[in-house]
Structure formats: structure tokens, C-alpha cells
Amino acid sequence: MSHILDSFKLDGKTAVVTGASRGLGQGMAVALAEAGADIVAVSSTPSMETRSMIEALGRRCVVVEADLGDRNAVRRIIPEARGGFASLDILVNCAGIIRRADFLEFTEKDWDDVMGVNLDAVFLLSQCFSRDVVERGSTGKIIHIASMLSYQGGVRVPSYTSSKSAVIGLTRLMANELAAKGINVNAIAPGYMATDNTAALRGDEERNQAILGRIPAGRWGTPDDLKGAVVFLASSASDYVHGYTIAVDGGWLAR
């Protein structure tokens, strides 16, 4: 007899996770492995620590090193990943970069670099993954990582805000086109997380206290806080969820 918790299991599935060498990407890769999936860990530097963590769970992990700012490198990820697995079932687009400067001084390079990784790579990799799924006549799950700045403007991060706002729009567009093809496309918008990207904010006592004062949960998030959401969206438990962005933010948007 089937049990609801069985629908969250990912046994026999393979997940491609970008930005898997550290932080949120590493946390979500490990979560998917804990749910039973094998992992393709993609990052600009070798994800050896991630691989060790996943193999300790008894799951397979193939490491793919790729510069996500290089479109040709992005196009090679799915073919390289397919070399190690019969099928690729889940894609988590987590890798992202941020550059900070006042709008009037923000450089074209900082604009292009961020958009290249945070948006262009998401589009291209999702397209390659989706084509592979459709050609195999299979089904798939795609999970983008959005941000609180998908909803708000922020300050001093024009390319990051623009890219993450676009991610929600792309999520909806892809869901509209791919749902009928058996591919679920959704997103997770993490709140203020204790990662490398927020080290400067947490190190500024005034900003840190201002941020904490607005989070109903009263703390910064951690990679573990995303585990439930990513496993849900990657599993059959979310088969009728399309084009939605789940905020995992400690209540930030409710404030």
C-alpha cells in the first residue's frame, strides 16, 4: 500500500545541481541524496567535499567542473553528465554570483558577469536538460533558485536584482510551455541565508541587526532550511505544482 511519504522518495533518480561545491547548492545536493537521488555536482571548482558527503550516504556523485559564465561550457554539462548516468531527472539551477556598487558607478562588466551566470546559464542549461528529457520521452523536474530580490529592488545590486527578478518570469514561462511535456518547473526564493554571498552583510553589525529585526523567525537561514522545499519540488509529491516560487524566508515577505 502506497504511503504519502513514499512520494517524497527519489530512489533511482539523478539530479544535476549547479553551485554544488558549497553553501545552498551543497546543502540541496546533499538533501536530494538523502532522499535517494544520485547527484551530478556542477561548479566552477571541483566539488570534492560535496562528493564525499554524498558518497557517505551511499549515493553516486559525478563532479562536473564548468564556468557557468561561458556559454560553451554550459552546453557541455548535460552531455558530460549523461556519460555517467542513464537518465537525468532533476535540475537545480542554484549557482549565482553578486556584485555590489552604487547604480551610478556600476560597470558593464559587473552587469554582464552576473547576468551571464544568474540568467543566461539558467536558460541554456534548462533548455539542454529539457531537450534531453523530451527526446527520451521521459519526465523531469526543474528548480530555479530565485531570491528576496526577485520581489524587491534592494540597493547597490542592479544586475543581481534584475537577474533574480527575471528568474521568476522564466520559471512561469517554462512552466507554461513544458508542463504538457511532463516537466515541472518551479523555483525557491531563499530569504537571508548565512552564505558567502551575505558575509559582508552579516559582518556589518548595523545591517545585520536591521535584517534580523525584519525576519519574524529572528535568525538568518541555513542551507538545511531549503532541504524540505527542494526535495518536495524534485519529487512526485509536487507533480501538480507548476510555475510557482516558494519563499523560504523566515517570514521576511510577510513583514
> Which residues form runs of ≥5 with pLDDT under 50?
none
Strand content: 5-15%
* CATH homology group: NAD(P)-binding Rossmann-like Domain
Regarding quaternary structure, what we see is single chain
* The number of domains: 1
Distance between the termini: 43 Å
- Write the element-wise H/E pattern from the N-terminal end onward: EHEHEHEHEHEHHHE
CATH topology: Rossmann fold
Question: What's the arrangement of secondary structure elements?
Answer:
Blueprint: E1 14-18, H1 23-34, E2 38-43, H2 48-55, E3 61-65, H3 71-82, E4 90-93, H4 108-135, E5 140-145, H5 158-178, E6 183-190, H6 199-203, H7 205-214, H8 227-234, E7 245-248
Structure notes:
By secondary structure, the protein is an alpha/beta fold. It has one domain: 3-Layer(aba) Sandwich (Rossmann fold). It is 41% helix and 15% strand. It contains eight helices and seven strands. Strands 3-2-1-4-5-6-7 form a seven-stranded parallel β-sheet, sandwiched between helices. Helix 5 links the parallel strand 5 and strand 6. The longest helix is centred in the middle third of the chain and has 28 residues. The relative contact order is 0.15.
